[in-house]
Structures are given as C-alpha cells and as structure tokens.
Design a protein that fits this description.
By secondary structure, this protein is α+β, with helices and mostly antiparallel strands. Helix content is 19%, strand content 32%. The protein has helices at 26-36, 41-44, 46-50, 61-71; strands at 16-18, 22-23, 79-90, 99-111, 116-126, 132-143.
Length: 164
C-alpha cells in the first residue's frame, strides 16, 4: 500500500515513499517565469545564463519545489491540506531537460483532534542521476477515519484550529 493511501492510524515514523519522475522543459520554465513575473536572466536569457556560474539556463527553485508537490500522490480523501513547507534547501541547479522525482519519509505523526492529524515528512527531490537538488520538511493535515467521513463540503475544514 502506498503511503498516501494509508489511514492516519496506520502511519508511523520511518514509512517512506518515492514518486514518478517529471522532466523539466523549456515550456515549464518560460510558463513559470511568465506566471510569476520572475524573469531573472538565469532562467530566461540563454546568452546571459551561458556566462553565469551555472553555464546555462536553469529552472526556478520554486518551480522545482512546486513540481515536487505535484508528483507526490496526495490522496484527496486523506490529505486535507498542505500545512507547512519548512527548512527548504536548494542544493543543486535543475537544468532544462532534467527529470526530478521525490523520495520521502514520515518523521512524525501527531493527532490534532478526533478528525485530523499532522504528518511531518522529509522530502528529498532528486534528479535523474540520483543527486539531491532540493530538501524540505513538509507537513500535511491528514483526515482521521477517512472511511467514516464524507466529502459533503462541511466538516473538517470548518473546525480546523487556526494555529497548531
């Protein structure tokens, strides 16, 4: 059973997962630059980037982190929300054409109340050469008793504490 298919009460520190890969394309970088307004020449100007310490254009760090979230199979019946991303470290550049995937493990499982729990994980984003490109701590709010709770639009989110 995949980690993100498990009920909250079946989770424990040390459980691990690995995701499928996602290749970073020029269209991804240009689209992200346009969407965010981050037009730094390291990402969008091949001439400028060729003279940079990286020697070529690279993907935005936040694009890589966003794609990492996208490839992690967060089950919407169990994972209510991404609660926090902490201690992000960008270790290596990701070149256009690189393929990234996420390897992660559960660090802590903490009940919040009868209906929700907080699952803290370490995510390691790696490239096609198994080299670490990003490391981050990620906390997700997990539904407890997923089978008993319905998705009727009222419930878990209405009663969430604003601070945890």
């Amino acid at each position: 059973m995949e980690l993100f298919e498990r009920d909250f009460d079946d989770l424990h520190p040390g459980l691990s997962f690995a995701t499928r890969g996602r290749t970073i394309t020029e269209a991804d970088v240009v689209g992200f630059a346009t969407l965010t307004g981050d037009l730094h020449p390291q990402h969008v100007d091949a001439s400028w980037a060729a003279r940079s310490p990286f020697g070529a254009r690279i993907a935005h760090g936040m694009l890589v982190l966003s794609y990492a979230v996208g490839v992690v199979p967060l089950d919407p019946e169990r994972v209510i929300a991404l609660r926090r991303v902490r201690d992000v470290v960008f270790k290596r550049p990701v070149a256009l054409g690189d393929t990234i995937h996420v390897e992660g493990e559960v660090d802590e499982v903490k009940p919040v109340d009868d209906r929700t729990g907080l699952v803290s994980c370490t995510w390691r984003v790696k490239n096609q050469h198994a080299r670490l490109v990003v490391r981050a701590g990620v906390d997700v709010l997990w539904r407890r008793g997923a089978e008993e709770q319905s998705m009727n639009g009222v419930g878990v989110l209405d009663s969430l504490p604003l601070t945890m």
